[in-house]
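Q: What would this chain look like folded?
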Amino acid sequence: MSTATTGARPRAGTPRRGTGHRRRRSVLVALAFLAPALVFLGAILVYPVVYTVIRSFYSASGDQFVGWSNYLAMFTSDSTFTAIRNNVIWVVVAPFSCTALGLVFAVLMEKISWATAFKLIVFMPMAISMLAAGVIFRGMFQQDPDHGVVNAAIVAVTDAFGGPQASLPGAGPRQEVGLSASDGGAISADQAVQVGTVQDFPLVGVRADEVPSGAAQAETAPAPGPDQITGTVWLDVVRGGGGTNGQIDPGKPGLPGVRVQAVGPGGQVVASTTTDDTGRYTLSGLDPGQYSVVLPATNFETGFTGINWLGPSFITAVVILSFVWIWAGFAMVMIASGLSAMDRSLQEAARIDGASEWQVFTRITAPLLMPVLLVVFVTLIVNVLKTFDLVYVIPPGNAKPAANVIAVEMWRVSFGGGNDQGLGSALAILLLVLVLPSMILNIRRFRADRQR
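A: My prediction, written as structure tokens:
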């Protein structure tokens, strides 16, 4: 008896009719949805990279093929060498500092009751633009203590521990009363002074705003003892006019903090003192005889006004500090997230077994946080290599070459006056090559975490 073959089931392993058609349709639908994103990605990423690579082999005008000349010029230029050196410093210092501070802050937040406020304060700089942060740090580190808060604090501490000293640049003697200034800037009496007498120092050439803030009305010095020389140092000028030259009149301030020295015949300083708020001084313990009474030149120097933070020597450190101030909050939040997801039973078990807090941190907490620390560190490296805003805003004109980095050098030679987009393109490719390893490492880390 024969069986009908109509409606027989297909053999095993034979693809059903229409399977390939459905697959092609699924691929087309996926491409249709991805097409806008792919076009957009190609327009803003692939095309600029390809064009920059091609442009780096052409001259500044773009109409002449120069081969590897731009790359050779890049590695033989002093400014590019400085930029590469500074980028190395950035990569070594900034990511380590941010990650370490973020780790410390994240751990400390678990030990304090006001953790939310602490986290807000540390993370707040992330809400400030790089440009605004650069302006803030440039103002903070101004050399003039009247404008830069850092130098104002340093000068205040120096004055507190070293004692206030007069700083009267430009001051000179009233010459018609028997005083003269040496070539080195010291002011002294023309004649030797006998012990037991008075030697006054009326000065001129001091601006009203340079008179020490503690200055009071000048007063006549007391009568000296048998082993003393006394006198008064004052500004021999009355604001608005009036008074007699060489005389202590109302309205003439004494000059406090002025150092006065008695110099013996051999040129040695045998006694020294400073004037009080009224400008009076007393040199005591002198043997009988004559001495030269001198106001040393140090009284008339500018004095300590702080450190030139924005000069070529310290500018890179200041800019890196601003970066750490901004990004430490990011590192703290990322690491705190890792801490919140950590299995705390291991830490508690270690404490029960007698481990100290330092051992718990170094043997358990830090190793468990290593994946998060690596992501934070690599992300910071990428941001460090691309740093532009801070380096462009903070350094003043004379310090910009010393703070140069690759991103700023690329902009400078391309658009900031160099007008050499061939060399600028070569620098852009160098920056891309430096950033790629960190980005690839980050992508691999993300994939590894996703597969767990």
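The two ends are 61 Å apart (CA to CA).
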